[in-house]
Amino acid sequence: MSAVRRPQCVVIGAGPAGLGAALAAREAGLSDVMLLERDFELGGILPQCIHDGFGSIVFEQVLTGPQYAQRFIDRVERAGIEVKLNTMVLEMRGDRRITAVNPADGVFELEPSSIVLAMGCRERTRHQVMIPGYRPAGVICAGAAQRDINIEGLMPGRRAVILGSGDIGLIMARRLTLEGAEVEGVYEIMDHPGGLTRNVVQCLHDYDIPLHLSHTVTFIHGRKRVEAVTVARVGEDLKPLRDTERRVPCDTLVLSVGLIPENELSKQAGVQLDPLTGGPVVDETMHTSVEGIFACGNVVCVFDLVDWVTQTAETAGRGAAEYVLEAGRRKRGPAVRVTAGRNVKFVVPQLVRRPERGVDFFFRVEHPERAARTRVLVDGEELYSRKAKMVRPPEMIKAGADPGKAARGPENVTVEVVAEEEEA
Amino acid sequence: MKKTHSYTCINCPLSCGLTLVEEDGEVLEVSGADCRVGEKYAVEEFRNPRRTVSTTVRVQGGVLPLLPVVSAAPIPKALVRDAVRMLSRLTVDAPVADGQVIYPDILGTGVDVVASRRLDAAGRGDA
After folding, report:
1. CB–CB contact B98 A70 (8 Å)
2. Is the peptide bond before B68 cis (omega within 30 degrees of 0)?
3. Count of CB atoms within 10 A of residue A273's CB?
4. Which residues of B touch A51 (CB under 8 A)?
5. What is the pTM for the complete model shown?
6. How close B18 comes to chain A (CA, Å)?
7. What are A286-337's pLDDT values in tens digits?
8. Interface TM-score (ipTM) > 0.85
9. Which end of chain B has fewer CB atoms at under 10 Å, N or C?
10. Torsion angle of alpha carbons A54, A211, B18, A56, nearest 10°?
11. Residue A132: its pLDDT value, please?
């Protein structure tokens, strides 16, 4: 085995988060940044997201997924960042020792001064939503179907039912239709769509694909191949109403039932996770609970816009660079907790350490609400306030505040959504 | 006679609910938009709805079997399916440059269809 390499920063994962973080770390002054990617090329999941709608915030332009990725890939190549493809991280320890493997180097060890976690997320499967029935071919997650159709050139089926109205499911409803398959309908257990409104409009309304809210799949028929599914309306308790069951013939069930941050490595290293997001607890520099380990993008919490993944990546990359360049000269200050207030499901970052700098808070609401106001409070003082015509759980909200500008404290930061009339 | 149409703007994640009032095809008023893009979108959506087309074409000798392509500008919504069908019959040779024109003037719209990534030639994942 060759000598242990000690880069200033190792970024794990080369999707939009990893690419953005590696670039930011380099631009913030680190000369030795290494990017590890298990796939054969850079870009993560973006190359299969061939639809448009990316980049409206970062580039103020509407791009496809591959176009968005290509811009960062070109920049990473120009910056001369060391990239290791086909490389799988096997182990990451709390003292930042990484064991990885690839066909060129074999098993090798790294001891970087800092790490940025950018492993993204994975799809929830049939087993996680517990659909009874046999285990026939033809049950596929929406992202896997997307890869089949857009990268591999394979059609997963001819007549599909889609369970869940997440963005990838909506986009695949349109994609399957354009590729000549029939999409019988999209079934959503909640009483509101899981994906962005613009995707409901462009992907379902444009193609007359029905969306059945408050519905779920209660059985998958077929032993070798999916032959049909049983669908049913659900009551307020989200339990299926048996007398509303009907059988829908199909050969494919596409699941778009949510994403989970991919934190197997983070757990190994002892990184503290937030049960609400499924990702690491981070401060305003995206620093996790483990010294020198940062995290960004969907590993932290599942974003609905790649633009915001990029923004957290840039914060993490800069944070890692600062950590390395200031090593030993600064102890981490005490952290102030960020509280999720009224109608707020979770907030990232969860901690604020250096309130003198501005912080971007990303959060989701628990339930849809009309005529609302999003607010950031520091010890009761309102530092940010913005009207919103409508807030919905699928549409993440960003609030920029400068906790250091508060008259007192900060001892407590709260992010909340209040109804306009409730306001004092 | 005055008529009201509702649209949801698809240009950004805000998804503004737009209301357009017209009389005999003449647009009188657009409300509900948070920005100018939304106003313009409602008028376009009423007069001549357009969509960006994105799909894949076959590639010979590339690191991947498919190349993602996109229309350089939106085309009339009614032509989207035909455009995808036409592009599905195409095969291009690798390597392909990002932005390379794959099919000029699709269906006489004046809009070119371009590659939406770079696609290198030769074997895949053999490193």
Report:
1. yes
2. no
3. 16
4. 54
5. 0.93
6. 12
7. 999 999 999 999 999 999 899 999 999 999 999 999 999 997 666 777 889 9
8. yes
9. N
10. 0
11. 87
Contacts of A65 in chain B (CB under 8 A): 68
Q: Residue A349, preceding bond cis, omega within 30 degrees?
A: yes
Distances from the Cα of A69 to the Cαs of A27, A38, A260, A377, in angstroms?
18, 16, 22, 36
CB contact under 8 A, A66 and B68: yes
- Please, which residues have CB within 8 angstroms of residue B69's CB and are 6 or more apart in sequence? B54, B55, B56, B57, B87, B102, B103, B113, B114, B115, B116
A416 vs A363: CA distance, rounded Å: 9
Which one of B66, B69, B84, B89 would you mutate to disrupt binding with A, by most A Cβ within 10 Å of its Cβ?
Answer: B66
Token pair, residue A164, equals 């869940």
Residues in chain A within 8 Å Cβ distance of B71: none
CA closest to B34 among chain A residues: A389
Tell me whether the omega of the peptide bond preceding residue A47 falls within 30 degrees of 0, making it cis. no
Whole-angstrom Cα distance, residue A386 to residue A403? 16
Residues of A in contact with B70 (CB under 8 A): 50, 52, 64, 67
Distance separating alpha carbons of residues A80 and A127, to the nearest angstrom: 43
* A70 contacts B68? CB cut-off 8 A: no
